[in-house]
Amino acid sequence: MGELAAIEKVSAPSVTGIVGRLEERGLVERQPDPDDARSTLVRPTETATTMLAAARQLRTAFLTTRITGMQDSEISTLVQAMALLDRIAAGE
Question: Of 11, 33, 31, 29, which Cα lies nearest the Cα of 20?
Fold first, then answer.
């Protein structure tokens, strides 16, 4: 939970609450860490993996439709913006 909290930049109690709610909905499962008895591993369930794949397909279809209708200059601007966002995300 601590590692997940650090990745998401939130507190460990926040992650614990979120994971608990996801577990109640059958979207994640907790398993003991075989390498560290004090830790718990959190894994998505098959249901969560299926839901995520469906959401990604919908998002890809939406973006494909929107980008297909763009002018070349707009696509160029979008490519430049994506490069900038990648740099920001990487902390540069």
Answer: 29
